[in-house]
Each structure stands twice: as structure tokens, then as C-alpha cells.
Known about the structure:
The protein has 195 residues and is mainly beta. It has one helix at 2-22; strands spanning 28-29, 39-42, 48-50, 53-56, 63-71, 74-82, 87-92, 106-110, 141-149, 152-157, 160-167, 174-182, 185-194. Strands 1, 3, 4, 6, 9, 10, 11 and 13 form an eight-stranded antiparallel sheet that branches. It has a five-stranded antiparallel sheet with strand order 2-5-12-7-8, with no helix packed on it. A hairpin with a 2-residue loop joins strand 3 (48-50) and strand 4 (53-56).
Amino acid sequence: xxxxxxxxxxxxxxxxxxxxxxxxxxxxxxxxxxxxxxxxxxxxxxxxxxxxxxxxxxxxxxxxxxxxxxxxxxxxxxxxxxxxxxxxxxxxxxxxxxxxxxxxxxxxxxxxxxxxxxxxxxxxxxxxxxxxxxxxxxxxxxxxxxxxxxxxxxxxxxxxxxxxxxxxxxxxxxxxxxxxxxxxxxxxxxxxxxx
Length: 195
């Protein structure tokens, strides 16, 4: 009889949780694999779509692809490949679409060759350093998940938590930007789920 009560209690808990799970917003694909629709280039990087990949491998200075929409609370998942010498990143809640910097947005870095690795790959520049050893992203496909909810930030790179509960309230809302600084940068997926 005890196992039957446990089974019934488990079923009831599942049924009570089902409406909450059903209300969870679906992920939105920001990169459709076919075009730059929904993105605005800033700078002179040669962003293009080839064989379903978003690619940049030339440009002078920092360049970006900026989402047309702005976002507040979200979970962003990006799948990317970069060369070992690449300087790239995901910029969140950008306040100025035309002049994106780590001072007016949150830069989740993808930069294995950064001279000071404190804010290298997996860190949020000037907010949350990455604990040594800094993870390496160059020369392989990677999955990065960034959760931004209110003033709290979490970053997971290839299953390793690189930022856990960092707090910063300077930027509340804004577009997402993909950075090209140097090397070869490829994105095959950029998805965002509102929280």
C-alpha cells in the first residue's frame, strides 16, 4: 500500500508541475542558418553565411553583428568554432548599437590568446574573471550557455561552469552582439530563450 501511495503522490506532483513546464517559453533561433536576417553589421568584418554557418575571417578593428531586437532576461546558447588566434565574444544587453564596448554591455569572452587570461575565454570582461585554468575554445566546436536574469549571470562552456552567479546591475536590457576581432570565427547556432 505504501508504494501505491508513493506512486499516486508522484503522479499528482507531476500533474501539478505540468502547467508550469508548459508555460516555459520556447527558444528562439536568432541565426536561421540561411541569412543575416535579424542582424545588423557594425564595423567592416566580412560576416557571411556559408553552408549554414555564420562566418567572419577578415576585418580591421572590432566588428559586430547586432541583433535587431533587445532582450532583458534570457538564456543564450551559442555553438561556435574559432581558430586558436581568434578574438571573439558574445556581447549582452548592449546600450549603444553603434559603439559596442565592455563598458556599455556585458562581454562574454572567446579569446584564448588574450594577453591577460583573467578575462579570457569563458569570463565576463570586467565583471567575472574565469578561474584558472582558463578553458580553450580554439580549433574545435564549442557550446556556450549564458544565463542573464536580473543582475545575475552564469556561463557554462562545454559543460564547465566558468561564471557562477556573478552580480552586476549596470545594463538591464539591450541587443545581443556577436564579435569579430581576429582569426576565424564560425557560429552554427545562436538560440535565445526568454526567462
